[in-house]
């Protein structure tokens, strides 16, 4: 007769809070990801947690931007080893990544990407020096609106130059609304692919800008 293996007792929420500090990037005096993972590993060894318990305990202590990150990527994380690898990759330092996640949270307003009755004329500039201002002027004079899109930072960008050219010409008087710029987030460019996408303009950002310029109304 064989004896079934003893099942490890589940840790309670209170025990997890006592064992593992919270991980919330950007908080003053908060732990870096590498430091936090070491504390999680120590708790796993101390209480002989299995793989499932390890992942549950670690995820339970995520807060703020880290929790948002996990909720958006949990489908790709199947084990604690996957979790540890991904969190160290996505949170290599405290401040810049937290800033990116702050911008990500502010962008999470769901927008309807299919706006009926709105048509856009897209100009894909081949060069920026020389700048084909005549094509831009003709488009603004026809549509009476302008939205610029670029992946660079907002300050001193190509969109800024285009806005200045329009403002300094008679084309300005054809505008029915202020020019709107869509740019990358004003933070250092992250290395992780998921954070890079958050730092660069996406389709919902462009749609929201067009709606803003048109006053939220369809033609």
UniProtKB/TrEMBL annotation:
<keyword id="KW-0560">Oxidoreductase</keyword>
<dbReference type="Pfam" id="PF02780">
    <property type="entry name" value="Transketolase_C"/>
</dbReference>
<comment type="function">
    <text>The pyruvate dehydrogenase complex catalyzes the overall conversion of pyruvate to acetyl-CoA and CO2.</text>
</comment>
<dbReference type="InterPro" id="IPR009014">
    <property type="entry name" value="Transketo_C/PFOR_II"/>
</dbReference>
<keyword id="KW-0786">Thiamine pyrophosphate</keyword>
<protein>
    <recommendedName>
        <fullName>Pyruvate dehydrogenase E1 component subunit beta</fullName>
        <ecNumber>1.2.4.1</ecNumber>
    </recommendedName>
</protein>
<dbReference type="InterPro" id="IPR027110">
    <property type="entry name" value="PDHB_mito-type"/>
</dbReference>
<dbReference type="InterPro" id="IPR033248">
    <property type="entry name" value="Transketolase_C"/>
</dbReference>
<keyword id="KW-0670">Pyruvate</keyword>
<feature type="domain" description="Transketolase C-terminal">
    <location>
        <begin position="113"/>
        <end position="206"/>
    </location>
</feature>
<dbReference type="GO" id="GO:0006086">
    <property type="term" value="P:pyruvate decarboxylation to acetyl-CoA"/>
</dbReference>
<dbReference type="GO" id="GO:0004739">
    <property type="term" value="F:pyruvate dehydrogenase (acetyl-transferring) activity"/>
</dbReference>
């Amino acid at each position: 007769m064989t004896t079934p293996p003893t099942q490890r007792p589940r840790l309670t929420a209170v025990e997890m809070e006592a064992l593992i500090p919270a991980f919330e990037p950007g908080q003053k005096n908060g732990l870096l990801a590498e430091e936090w993972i070491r504390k999680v590993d120590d708790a796993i060894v101390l209480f002989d947690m299995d793989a499932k318990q390890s992942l549950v305990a670690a995820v339970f202590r995520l807060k703020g931007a880290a929790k948002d990150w996990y909720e958006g990527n949990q489908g790709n994380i199947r084990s604690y080893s996957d979790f540890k690898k991904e969190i160290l990759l996505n949170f290599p330092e405290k401040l810049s990544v937290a800033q990116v996640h702050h911008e990500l949270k502010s962008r999470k307003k769901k927008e309807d990407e299919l706006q009926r009755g709105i048509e856009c004329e897209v100009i894909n500039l081949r060069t920026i020096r020389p700048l084909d201002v005549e094509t831009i002027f003709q488009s603004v004079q026809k549509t009476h609106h302008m939205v610029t899109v670029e992946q660079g930072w907002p300050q001193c960008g190509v969109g800024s130059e285009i806005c200045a050219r329009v403002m300094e010409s008679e084309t300005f008087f054809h505008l029915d609304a202020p020019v709107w710029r869509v740019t990358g987030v004003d933070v250092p460019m992250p290395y992780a692919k998921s954070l890079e996408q958050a730092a660069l303009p996406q389709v919902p950002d462009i749609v929201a800008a067009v709606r803003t310029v048109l006053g939220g109304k369809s033609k």
